[in-house]
Amino acid sequence: MQIRRAGVIGLSTALVLSRRKDIQVTIVSKHMPGDYDIEYASPWAGANYWPVGKPGSKLQQFEKATWPELERICREVPEAGVHFQDSRIYGRTKDAGSATGQWFEELCKEDAWFKDVAPNFRVLPKSELPPDCDTGTAFTSVCINTAVYLPWILGQCVKNGVVVKRGVLSHVSEAGAYHPSGRADVVVNCTGLMASKLGGVMDSKVYPGRGQIVLIRSEPGTMYTTSGTDDGPDEATYIMQRAVGGGTILGGCLQHGSWESQPDPNLAQRIMQRAIDLCPSLAPKTGKVNELSIIRHGVGLRPMRPGGPRVEIEEIGGTWVVHEYGHAGYGYQSGWGSSWEAERLVLQVLGRLDGPKAKL
């Protein structure tokens, strides 16, 4: 079995498959945990659990299935870099139809489907809303330190015997050559945004959803977001404190179709000031941006895909491929559910639950 790409989706799927004694897994990826590159979205994520999948969608199913595993890891595996955080979602009616308004549509509903999934869900009274917001909810979520979580998953894979290799592929059929045996029975394609450029796949539906963040040292203790801003239809405000000293992410934006890798300093100023306005404890002395202690600025390109993630089987030039990409900005909150679906498809391709060891 060959896993193509070591982002959160690829790593999670490799770990799920590696728990089966009848499957030998190899990961091949251009980028690995610890790398920071514009092609590699996972390190730049917040990352947290703010469900956005529409009821009945594949993404919604994955998000619902993923929460119990995130909760378990948070309670039982402190070294994974996941912690619980109170979360507040603020919605503005005037954001309906905007890029960020559509992004947050499900998240802002007072009768959200996840009210029976995320703990302590409640609708916020008007007295607890910012002046420009019409609706709001609160619930217990998690926030993940990606710099700890990704290496932890990779370490668990290696513990289970997964072989890990660096490689750059021009065509999906080349993946099998990286397996120690020289071939793979199934390739799991977790290439994210690069699915738009990988030979044999070339999915024209996949495009970048550019996000820009500022990582600071403050600890607000609560995660916040609003459905939009008055600074533009593709800008939003969110604040996420990562676990185990990972700093706090301030964002952001959703710029459809932009491949720009460098932070926009003007956008960064807006991001920071909006965060302070929403959470004054970030800069309690002056309420100004220059009070913040900045760790880094960053840009990540979400692997957007109309209709949501592609998780399905395809035979490409004699190679069986299980596609698993297009999770936009929701890889962490849908990753385990997606991985279990990919596992089901892999077993379907192999045509058995038992038998000789399969090579992936």
Automatic annotation (TrEMBL):
GO biological process, one term: D-amino acid catabolic process
Residues bound to D-dopa: Y238, G329
Domain FAD dependent oxidoreductase residue range list: 6-339
Binding annotation for FAD: V172, T191
Pfam families: DAO (PF01266)
Keyword annotations: FAD, Flavoprotein, Oxidoreductase
GO molecular function, one term: D-amino-acid oxidase activity
Protein name per UniProt: FAD dependent oxidoreductase
InterPro entries on file: DAO, FAD-dep_OxRdtase
Cofactor(s) named in the record: FAD
Family (UniProt): Belongs to the DAMOX/DASOX family.
Keyword Cytoplasm belongs to the record: no
PANTHER family in alphabetical order: D-AMINO ACID OXIDASE, D-AMINO ACID OXIDASE (AFU_ORTHOLOGUE AFUA_5G11290)
GO CC terms: cytoplasm
